[in-house]
Specification:
The complex is a heterodimer of chains A (1046) and B (118).
Chain A (H helix, E strand, L loop, with lengths): L4 H16 L5 H28 L5 E4 L10 E4 L1 H20 L1 H7 L1 H19 L3 H19 L5 H32 L4 H7 L5 H17 L7 H9 L2 H23 L5 H21 L5 H21 L1 H4 L2 H27 L14 H14 L6 H15 L3 H27 L12 H21 L12 H11 L5 H23 L4 H18 L12 H17 L3 H19 L6 H26 L17 H16 L8 H6 L5 H9 L1 H13 L4 E2 L2 E2 H21 L4 H21 L3 H32 L15 H15 L5 H16 L2 H26 L15 H19 L2 H12 L8 E3 L2 E3 L4 E3 H22 L32 H7 L6 H20 L7 H20 L4
Antiparallel strand pairs in A: 1-2, 3-4, 5-6, 6-7
Chain B lengths: L3 H19 L3 H22 L26 H32 L13
Helix pairs in contact in B: 1-2, 2-3
Classes of the chains: A mainly alpha (1046), B mainly alpha (118).
Chain lengths: 1046, 118
Amino acid sequence: MVNPIHIVSISLGVAFFLGFLRKANHNLTSTIMLLAFAANAFISAQWLWAFIYSNTEPFYIFTAGFRPPYSISLLMGRNEAIFTFLINIAGLLSGIFMLKTYLRHGVYAMMAFLGLILGLNIIILTRDLFNFFVFMEVSSIATAGMIILIKNVKSVSAGFKYIVASSLISILLLLGIVFIYYFGGSLNIDDMITNHLLVSKGAEVAVFLVLMSILLELKPFPANGWALDVYEGSLPGIGALLSATSATAVYFVLNKLLAFANPYWYNVVAVVGMISFIGSNLLGIKQKNAQRLLGYSSVGQIGLLLVILGFSNTLGEKFEYIAFGVLISHYLAKSGLFWLAGIVKQDNIKNWAALQKKPIFLFFMGVFLFTLAGFPPFPSFFAKWQLIMELSTAGMYAWVIGILFGSFLEAVYLFRWFGYAMKGEHNDLPMFELPWHKILPVVIGVLSVFGISYISKDWLPGGTSLNFIPLYFIAFMYLIDFAPAKVKNTIVILVITYYSWLVIPNYYNTDIIRLIFSSIFLIGAILTLIPGYLKKGSRKGFYPAALLMFSGLIGLVESTNIYQFFFSWELMTIGSYLLIIRGKYSMPHAFKYLLFSVGGAYFMLMGFGMAHAGQASLSFDILRTGVPYSSIIFLLIAIGFMTKLASLGFHIWLPGAYGESEADVAPMVSSILINAGVFGFIILMTHIPDANIGYFNIPYMLGWIGVISALVGNIMASLQEDARKLVAYSSIGVMGYVLFGMAMMSHLGWLTAITYTINHFLFKGLLFLAIGGVILRTKTFNMYEMGGLIKKMPWSFIAVLIGIITLAGIPPLSGYAGKWLFYNAIVLKGWYIQGAFIMFAGIIAFLYCFRLIYAIFLGQLKDEHRNIKEASVWFIIPQYIIIITIMLFSAFPQYVLNPIGNWLSQYFPNNALVWNGSLATSSLGYWNAFNIMMIVMGMFVVLLLFLLLVNRGSKKVGQFDIVYAAERPERPETTHMAYNLYAHYNKAIGFLITPWITKSWDNISEWVNTIANHTRKIYNGNGQAYALHILIYIVIAYLIINGGLF
Amino acid sequence: MEYIGLITGFILVILGIWGFLTQKNILKMIIGFTISDTGINVIIVSISYLKNRTAPILNRPDLLTDTVNKITDPVPQALVLTAIVIGVGVTALMLSYALRLYQEKNTLDINNFKDLKW
């Protein structure tokens, strides 16, 4: 194998040699430089290969013919091989990315670049402290030289600030190293470790100086103003290098040197990291400049890595996996994003909308952002999961909260940025250039992310149990994204049908709950995909997003442990976010949706962590009453599910997210996705049926939340003018019923909740499809601008009619079943006050149901709708499939409800229904669905015949022929009162829906923004102030450490 | 007297850092840096000093026996050479930056270079 010393000799040799080629063609010289990096990378790679596959011993390189401590030695071990490989590959890719820059600036720039990478390689390999200092300086000087490759006042002043800061740090570092030698008598790191040379008090101060200097090189908040300016002011390629390579190398050095320090240093590192992680991510929220934002994010990620390093002893053998997962994600994503910044060339994050001109770059950006934010299937997800689990096991919940809070803040600014890029106005923005040398590194970065994701999942306990097959299919769908939508729609429907056929029958007779939910998720998917046939063109990006959501949903049902569950949950979040943001005005709503989802998921993750603590297993059984903190676990996980159910307090994202999404996406998210929360609650509550905090019974409180959600959701729905928003608000109401039913923790309560879930899936899908089909024709969402469509759209009218009959719980349809069960359950439980509220909410539901049918279909036809046609057949087909299902479920509910009852009896044996055919008997009364259906149908037919009979000779009246009313209206609007229909009710009970919840959330976000804005003023732009920050940081750190805090 | 080098060195370091942090003129800041850099070099040399010993240059026959107890520590003296070279490099870089900054804004006041902040 090639001796690692040749990394040094090649870099140095080429750098000197280039000096002779000043006059030569720059193409030649830059090729030589790239070859040097490739050779370095090859050397690292072959060592890496040897360490992994043939268990080679670590290799020492002795220089100058002496053994240490009389000479400098280098070490190539497995970790050194990994890190030098990362550095050299980054050098190669950055070199390619910045090829134009090097061609323009010639050999001096290339020499500086070689010096930078050489310096970083050596500080990784070296075992000698002074040698470390020398090459630290070499790489600093090279960096400073490269910052001014772009010559403007910003980069020059940023570069000067960089030198000021780094020379101050280097003074302290050198001082520390000299005194380490003075007290320890050696400069060799191994010597210090094996002989414990650094035990005296004086040596501790020296070690303090060295380690603090290295920490400061990692740009800890708030002593990092200089670094942020450099990220903002230099070329994006340099930003990528600084963020990905320099930080990586220095991180490695810190890990290396901590070995000879007093163990309390690990705690110091963790604290420094946590302050950095939270502080930097907080300030990032106010950033508008893309590169500076990436700088804040870099500082934050390094902070997280420091926390992980600080807990390396706690994490034990998992440390390497976790640290590597976060590091590699940061390394790839950050360099990728900096490179994208170099391609799109827009400072302001709002102008990244230019990426829409080349949608594949949005995909690249998305991959990097989701990698950074720790979403599956990217390596950071696995690392973060493992980190939370291990820290929870060690009982360090404060740290878990800190990590999750910081991650949330990071998600805020990353996804706001992504929202701008995806949906911002891009017509005025210039198209960016796409030279091959800039595209290549980005593509390699994206492919590496996926490659490492694929490898890394298997290295984790339980990782192999994750189902990646849907992801392969999604990748395939993305590859054929250019195909016409109709073709892709057919493929997707066929594949989902096949998958349903594989999955659903497994649950038949074995698991009724999973049977129901897998049917809702998969058959619902097929039904809501049918309207997709209407779309012309290729509908780019739709199918991967929809499939991500559906595979996440079915993954929830198929999961057998919390790990698979959380993995699927996060997949579903990505998919639904990408679906929702497709709507024309969806950007802010999708952003809100994502923030609530991420926040909820972190609560859930914390709950899972607490449950996992002390129990080796990952199965759902670890969630049970009796484990420590089971009530808190219940509450945390319940909050996660409530964000998806849009329970009151967590509902503010829903109306916009559902209302503004595309016509066929709205039924996907509102009637299918929302059930993920219900399924979660079923899992949670069957495992932890009894949760109390102090005197408070948590399910009892959830019941009240459900009641109020039902009431407020229904009132809000009644007061909407926008048909889509009306249906969306109604979801809040119905999910309130479901939550209330579950919270009763009784047989009938749960039966009600599940019945409502099935009903909601059916009628909400039906209504959203019907409304969506109508809106596509009328081109308006406002109900008062419609009217009289009954004759133009009879099929849609019947669908909406069936939908609202089911929704309102009017016999004979299945909504009535839900209501009958509900009142039985409430009376048996004895929750009369809540029952009264629920009844009141039910009456309000009539209001909006009436409004929906009256304002759209009844009344007067508007002039502009004279020639309107029935909604598209692709919308009608799924509606009538749903209607048939509703009819069957209404007439024969026993085939569904009886098995559910049997399943429920294992948890709630009391007060079960007794079924006899379609006759259900509770302890309060009985109900025969089939008979009711027959009677109502009979009455309907009799009345219909009677009306036909008496109307035989009646005269058909024209629309404006109402002279008997003594007026002669000229426009349809004047006879169809639909605008602000419930003004009087609004006056009476409108105070109930004062949006104080929305206002409270707005206030919280306002406070966070204000704090961030004030805090970041410490970065006043003055290089001296930044140097002062460094000094103050050191002094405070010294006082705290020697003040005995650690 | 044997600590005079060490004390002088520390005084220089602190003086230099003080100048570095308080002088508004960029050239004076650079001078501050070089002063503290020199201070560090003095410190490095002075910690290798051992009383009643001579320089680690084996130019006399009597030094060839029992060498270890007759010479001062040679390692810091080797280090200081490298440190001086690095200091020169950094100073040169700083000066070239100062030139650039002056070309950009015709001023050397550090307060005038706050284009990037927050």
